[in-house]
Write a structure and sequence with these properties.
The chain is of the alpha+beta class and 394 residues long. The chain has three domains: 212 residues, 2-Layer Sandwich (Uridine Diphospho-n-acetylenolpyruvylglucosamine Reductase, domain 3); 91 residues, ACT domain (Alpha-Beta Plaits), CATH 3.30.70.260; 82 residues, Alpha-Beta Plaits (2-Layer Sandwich). It has 14 helices and 18 strands. Strands 4-5-9-7-8 form a five-stranded antiparallel β-sheet. It has a four-stranded antiparallel β-sheet with strand order 12-13-11-14, with helices on both faces. Strands 16-17-15-18 form a four-stranded antiparallel β-sheet, with helices on one face. The chain is globular. The model has no long low-confidence stretch (mean pLDDT 96). It holds the Pfam family FAD_binding_4. Keywords: FAD, Flavoprotein. InterPro entries: FAD-bd_PCMH, FAD-bd_PCMH-like_sf, FAD-bd_PCMH_sub2, FAD-linked_Oxase-like_C, Oxid_FAD_bind_N. One of its GO terms (molecular function) is catalytic activity.
């Protein structure tokens, strides 16, 4: 299979123009750490962003960083950490879950809207993404957004590209707003709650003025023989002491909360972020999004239909489910459990045959499918970018 690795944006545009002229289907890759995600590839060649690397903009005082799409995520994070700053949305590292290798890239973070536990406080990756450059399917270089949040006219291509999974264009450069690293991080832990009571506690804490940056529940057997309900708070040390005390009083009816800090706290949240509890198993893994108060009912319905394990993030609004990868990997049971409550299910990990046979992303209603097809036709008229990665024909 042919492989392209341009060293600059103009070279990338020329490769795309030539590929378009012969309708050559391209699989877009960065560090290639997420190759097992999405529908199986239907490509004839790879187009890599690895050669498009390097920091292009860093203004610590303005809290803005820009980098070419192939820049390793670790390089961006190290640069920011050196100035006491961070990406706000805590992107997931998929390598443990998917059994992949390589280096995650900053472009892939934008392309899949990669967002972790801090999303409940800081928003998703797309909320911090303020500028993009990309090559569309005609081989044209497009720039949208800039160094400030309000720099949009007409169609917001920045938000459109975030989460498009490389189906609309090759990202060549991205710009993000960043945040300061907090002085202190601590996790309040409640033990022994069932799913319903845990989500009730998380919702009470999230509805308080005490500002959580993480809210997760690990049922018994996921991380420990006891169920653990986790609430992360960050800030100045005196603020942590005050808020922890107030949260303990607020949540007294749920039991006595212990305070965990340092490496023990960080290890818990890394495992939540990366779904590390499900790494190294042969199970299929699903990512379900719904209203937080519906999470326990959805999980219970899945548990009645088939053997499964799960845990909750985003206060109960995100449910990560592991189940047998045979047959449809639980697709029918999971989407049936979701149907009364709304929400979406994405198949994150499963064998190729399963990902080819069942919808990996939530099926779209006909009006939304027409909109998606129209956007694909407008940006990639020949259909050369990641064909079928999200939906047939897209």
């Amino acid at each position: 299979m042919r492989s392209y690795e341009p060293r600059g944006e103009d070279e990338a545009a020329e490769i795309v123009r030539e590929a378009g002229s012969r309708a050559e289907r391209l699989r877009l890759v960065g560090g290639d750490t997420k190759a097992p995600m999405g529908r199986p590839a239907q490509d004839e060649a790879t187009l890599s962003a690895r050669g498009l690397s390097g920091i292009t903009l860093y203004e610590p005082a303005e809290m803005v960083v820009g980098a070419r799409a192939g820049t390793p995520l670790s390089e961006v994070q190290a640069l920011l950490a050196g100035r006491g700053q961070m990406l706000p949305f805590e992107p997931m590292d998929h390598r443990g879950l998917l059994g992949s290798s390589g280096e995650p890239t900053i472009g892939a973070v934008a392309a899949i809207n990669n967002s972790g536990p801090r999303r409940i406080n800081a928003g998703a990756a797309r909320d911090s993404l303020i500028g993009v450059r990309f090559v569309n399917g005609r081989g044209e270089v497009i720039k949208s957004g800039g160094r400030v949040m309000k720099n949009v006219t007409g169609l917001d291509l920045v938000k459109l590209m975030a989460g498009s999974w490389g189906t609309l264009g090759l990202l060549t450069e991205v710009t993000f707003k960043v945040l300061p690293v907090q002085e202190r991080v601590a996790t309040l832990v409640l033990e022994g709650l069932d799913d319903g009571r845990a989500v009730e506690a998380l919702c009470a804490a999230l509805g308080s003025p005490f500002e959580l940056t993480g809210a997760a529940h690990l049922p018994a057997g996921i991380a420990d023989e006891r169920a653990l309900t986790l609430m992360r708070i960050e800030g100045f040390s005196t603020s942590i002491d005050y808020r922890a005390g107030e949260l303990r009083r607020l949540l007294k009816r749920f039991g006595a909360a212990t305070l965990v800090e340092g490496e023990a706290s960080a290890t818990l949240w890394t495992a939540v972020r990366d779904a590390g509890f499900f790494a190294g198993t042969g199970e299929a893994v699903w990512r379900l999004s719904a209203a937080p108060t519906h999470g326990p009912a959805i999980a219970a319905a899945i548990g009645r239909a088939r053997a499964a394990r799960w845990f909750y993030d985003w206060g109960g609004g995100l449910v990560l489910v592991a189940t047998d990868a045979a047959e449809d990997a639980g697709a029918a049971a999971i989407r049936s459990a979701l149907r009364p409550y709304g929400g979406h299910a994405t198949l994150v990990r499963a064998p190729d045959a399963v990902r080819a046979a069942v919808p990996v992303f939530e099926p779209l209603a006909e009006p939304l499918m027409r909109v998606s097809q129209g956007l694909k036709a407008a940006h990639d008229p020949v259909g050369i970018f990641n064909p079928g990665r999200m939906y047939p024909g897209i």
